[in-house]
Design a protein that fits this description.
The protein is built from three helices and four strands; from the N terminus they run βαββαβα. The chain is of the alpha+beta class and 101 residues long. It has a single domain, classed as 2-Layer Sandwich (Alpha-Beta Plaits), CATH 3.30.70.3090. A four-stranded antiparallel β-sheet has the order 2-3-1-4. α1 crosses α2. The longest helix has 18 residues. It is globular, with a radius of gyration of 17 Å.
Length: 101
């Protein structure tokens, strides 16, 4: 499956309570179950008036359908082209060293 980053404009998102986040989670899980296709909600981050979600699906339209069924805003759906972090530099150096020996 492909990975997608979703941006949801959600005024007041950073002030949502634990119970409200749990309710959103329940709604999302029900929407995932109703799709009838492989789909994984990986994680979400709340920042200011936005929620950023990482989901796995076969295509962007399935991600949008999940949003429709859950009643969630879906401002942007972008396929993740690459993932990296602090470890990427050391892994790359290790791979280069292995290639030259």
């Amino acid at each position: 499956m492909k990975r997608f980053m979703i941006e949801r404009v959600f005024p007041g998102a950073s002030e949502l309570t634990t119970e409200q986040l749990a309710e959103i989670s329940r709604t999302s899980n029900a929407a995932v179950d109703s799709l009838g296709v492989p789909y994984t909600w990986v994680t979400s981050f709340v920042a200011g008036d936005k929620i950023y979600c990482l989901h796995e699906a076969d295509d962007a339209e399935t991600v949008r359908e999940h949003a429709r069924r859950g009643g969630f805003p879906c401002t942007l759906v972008a396929e993740v082209a690459a993932e990296f972090g602090a470890h990427t530099a050391t892994e790359h150096e290790r791979q280069r060293a292995g290639a030259t020996t």
